[in-house]
Specification:
- The complex is a heterodimer.
- By secondary structure, chain A is of the alpha+beta class.
- Chain A has a five-stranded mixed β-sheet with strand order 1-2-3-5-4. In chain A, strands 7-6-8-9 form a four-stranded antiparallel β-sheet, with helices on both faces.
- In chain A, strand 4, helix 1 and strand 5 form a beta-alpha-beta unit.
- Chain B is of the alpha+beta class.
- In chain B, the strands form four sheets. In chain B, strands 1, 2, 3, 4, 5 and 6 form a six-stranded mixed β-sheet that branches. A four-stranded antiparallel β-sheet of chain B has the order 12-11-13-14, with helices on both faces. Chain B has a two-stranded antiparallel ribbon with strand order 7-10.
- The two termini of chain B are about 25 Å apart.
- The chains are: A alpha+beta, B alpha+beta.
- At the A-B interface, strand 1, strand 2, strand 3, strand 4 and strand 5 of A face strand 3 and strand 6 of B.
- Chain B: Keywords: Acetylation, Cytoplasm, Exosome, Nucleus, RNA-binding, rRNA processing.
- Chain B: One of its GO terms (biological process) is U5 snRNA 3'-end processing.
- Chain B: Its main location: cytoplasm.
Amino acid sequence: MAGLELLSDQGFRIDGRRSHELRKIQCRLGVFKQADGSAYIEQGNTKVLAAVYGPHEVKGSRAKMLQDKVLVNCQYSMATFSTGERKRRPRGDRKSTEMTMHLKQTFDAAIITNLYPRSQIDIYVEVLQSDGGNYCASVNAATLALIDAGIPLKDYVCACSAGFVNDTPIVDISYLEESGGGPELIVTILPKSEQIVFLEQNSRLHEDNLSKVLDVASKGCKDIYAILDRAVRDHVSKVSNVANTTE
Amino acid sequence: MADVNYSEAEKTFILHGIQDKFPCREDGRGCEDYRHMEIETGVVSNTSGSARLRLANTDILVGVKAELGVPSPEKPDSGCIEFFVDCSANATPEFEGRGGEELATEISTVLSRCYDNSGCLDLKSLCIIPKQQCWILYIDVLLLECGGNLFDAASIGVKAALYNTRIPNVTVNQEDDEMEIELSDDPYDVNRLDISSSPCIVTLSKIGHYHVVDASQKEEACCLARLMMGVTAKGTISALKKEGWGSLNPESIFDMMETGKKIGQVLNTSLLNVLEEEEKSGNKRKTVGFLK
């Protein structure tokens, strides 16, 4: 990208991070009362809300019902004011339909689906502000919401993106770095077993560099896992403290 | 709205509570009391103005985006405002897909009717070059949780977001026959909107023989009919709409209008007070958004 140096000679990125540093992550569980589980996450300037309903009986057409496992239903939408230029529709465009499919695929792999046959779990993700890494923030928020709803998961699901600039892999890329046209790798892993549940690469990247970028992205996922785990433990201890004092 | 069915006994309980001599609603409020309200402005940084309102369980996020556009032929010398409401599936699974569209259109039409009045918002100040360029304010309301009284909450959120809106200053240079617009580089060189006469919606729900404000979701289930009105700080009514399957007496409509006016005035002034107080704390204030 002309005029913009994504990685300076001193090793700093546009927003002042080093190549291996994530953006600041802040999150909260139990944002809403009506949903069975809900969570909010901020990754830098990307802000995402997720809500989980279920498991409940299959709504709508019964043809969708699965006899041997739970039906995971996702919806990804972006607030019309979330992007720099106003969006016309919050959902239903090609990009968000694709994102919905990706989320469904990811959580089908992570939820222990055989526990709830003939039922449905809804995962609704709403992007309030987008600044790159929307998919990653959505996955991380949805994981927290699923944990808040008490739905059995194989493991946390953590997603992280990585790019490749000046022969250096950079982790958790922002919108500016995404739109630079360089390669982008999105990885979702189950951190304990290090299994990859979702992998996507945009643009061109030399095969020799793939493992380097993949390593950086998985390292980012594990860092995110540590943050999410701490948030969950904080939340649970807070909730149990309240329960103890009211007893 | 949300998929709750209340039994006859439960409905009667609510009805009797309101009919009693000392009106007492299920949550202990009087007939003219609002529930606890929390408001914060400037929560979405890539908008021109934004606000988040939480009214008990109702959660609303409003974003205002100012974009350059062409004024409408009917009003060539003023800007435009456009309302868009999105009912997020986060609020209830019923809103998934296109499920929330009906409610969303209903809210956005009531809002636009409330603001469709030259006294409510000075749209002329949004005009840059008559017939050619003006600011279009896209006011997007995102409904995140339904806890009753969505219309009032949406309008309060909209007013707060408009208060928070900052529109970049533009200068028009005329070169020969061509007009050139120059946006100011300074992010602090902005114009604010005057919202002192913008309306807030007050909904009065008729339950039994009485009417209450700020009906909760349960009360909305027992409500026969409701009257919505856009009330400004001066007590003028900018829009009026009756809704619901029940019918209303002409007398009770006037009764409700009187109550609505009174409450709307208090609501408007206290909202403005809260917004001004928040503004005074200036840059020291940390936005909490959904993190609290």
